[in-house]
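We examine the record.
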Amino acid sequence: MPSNTRNVALLAGAQAVFMTTVNINVIVTSLVGVMIAPEPWLATLPLSAMFIASMITTLPASMLMGVFGRKSVFIWAVLVGIVACLAQGFATIWGHFPMYLLASALLGITSGTAQFYRYAATDNAAESEKARALSLVLAGGIAAAIVGPTLSRMTFTIIPEHIYAGCFFAAAAVQMSALFFLPFLRITRVATPEKSAFSVGWLFRQPYFIAGLTAAALGYGIMTFIMTATPLQIVHGEHMGNDSNAIIIQWHVLAMLVPSLITGSLIVRYGVMPILWCGLGLYLAMMVVTLAGTSFWHYMITLIFLGLGWNLLFVGGSSIIAQACPPEGRAKTQGIADMMIVGMVALASLMAAWFHYLYGWQVMMGVALVLVGVIAVSLIVAMIYQPASSRPTSHSTNRP
């Protein structure tokens, strides 16, 4: 098996493990928060703590990868994740909200590091294959869309009198399976020139790069904003029950990840800008459906459109970031970019419960519409002020 094909396969497996853990947390973390938090509007704070810790981790993790290599940092992060999931389970049993909060934040270290699986797949890939490699790694999470919700449903009540605690112990076991993939990575580290004309500051002033970063960050933020509030809306707002919540989240995650099998190829064939515009179109379709009714199927289709839109925006935006980074600027640029992306995710998750509690589901859709408009403006600016012939690539990202 060619080296990079092997790496993509292994990273796809690790991505499946990571996404399974995330799915379990998305399904049950807020529900546990409602039970043990001192105030209802703090229900999503543990999930937000995970995202905030993930944001703080991204830049240091990227810099550590530049020194020690990706594989070592990935493995250590998995070990931290195992401890975090176990701590979440015990905190749920003991009803200890501060411990639950801390454990969720600890899991954020794993999450922040796992964000780089997609970039690791592009390290040894040819320029024309970077988008496809990145997309295929994300597609590895398809298995997580099946396993995560299924495990959640199977373990909701596996520990008598402590609903949801068993879900976290299952997540810890899943985390351990990442050790069957990551130790076998073979990523060739590219020597970094002692002196380089590359300027991160210059890159972050390019309209095309900003458009990609905006699409990835706000696209992820919108998805998190809606998805984080979904369990609260389904279980406590519409009283549809835990099973309905798990099924809706399962189909949402499938919609997020199944398109990754072809998104990279579509970017290669049609270009990244049309893909990003399609992502925005799907977000608008999501808003139309969710405002049309409140049945199980309305929520199901809403979350499916949300997942599809996220995939196109995140994969498209990430491909721009990956292609624009030469080896000498990769650690810093990807670290800063992902810190901004995860920072937006953290803010979105933190605001989700507050908005849902005070203003409701429909107002949240209005906020999402404003953010879609911001992404659209960034794409228009890039198309006008930075045509294809002048867009930065990994071969031309130096200060002019």
About this structure: The domain at 3-187+198-390 is CATH 1.20.1250.20 (Growth Hormone; Chain: A;).
